[in-house]
Amino acid sequence: MEKYRKIIFSATLAFVLTAFIAPFSIFAQKTGIIRTNHQRHNISVPGYETIQASIAFEPGVQFGMHSHPGEEVIYVLKGTFEYQIEGEKPVRLKAGEVLFIPAGKNHRAKNVGKNKAVELATYIVEKGKTLVVMKP
């Protein structure tokens, strides 16, 4: 009986993990964007946390207008991006350059190069809020 419980538990665990991981893999394959979360920590400001992630874009891929419940600091690790902050002129950044996006400001990012582009995004955001809010 114990042997069957272990088999059922293992099968259930495999199913649950597949159900959670597969959608992210499919999203990445369909969109050409791969996000890797690196760290998440509470900070000294009550109610806020910092999140750090790298986001890789295939050539020509864009992530549409969106905002965050706090500031975003971008450091371009590889390639060339074009960023558009709503109400401002687009700006092109290449590896080694940085961009600050104020809290709640709608913006978009596009890989305008011929190779994969990667950014390191550091968010200083309100805890418990949705990190990415797409503009309708």
Can you characterise this structure?
By secondary structure, this protein is of the alpha+beta class. It has one helix at residues 2-31; strands at 33-42, 48-57, 62-67, 70-78, 80-85, 91-94, 98-101, 107-111, 117-126, 133-134. The longest helix is centred in the N-terminal third of the chain and has 30 residues, at 2-31. The radius of gyration is 18 Å and the shape is globular. The N and C termini lie far apart (53 Å).
Gyration radius over CA? 18 Å
Determine the N-to-C terminus distance: 53 Å
Query: Tally of extended strands?
Result: 10
Strand order of the largest sheet: 1-2-9-4-7
Biggest sheet architecture: 5 strands, antiparallel
Query: SSE order, as H and E?
Result: HEEEEEEEEEE
Multimeric state: single chain
The helix count comes to 1
Average pLDDT rating: 86
Would you identify the regions where 5 or more consecutive residues have pLDDT less than 50?
A: 9-28
In short:
The protein is of the alpha+beta class and 136 residues long.
Topology:
Elements: H1 2-31, E1 33-42, E2 48-57, E3 62-67, E4 70-78, E5 80-85, E6 91-94, E7 98-101, E8 107-111, E9 117-126, E10 133-134
Antiparallel strand pairs: 1-2, 2-9, 3-8, 3-10, 4-7, 4-9, 5-6, 5-8
Feature tags:
136 residues, alpha+beta, 1 helix
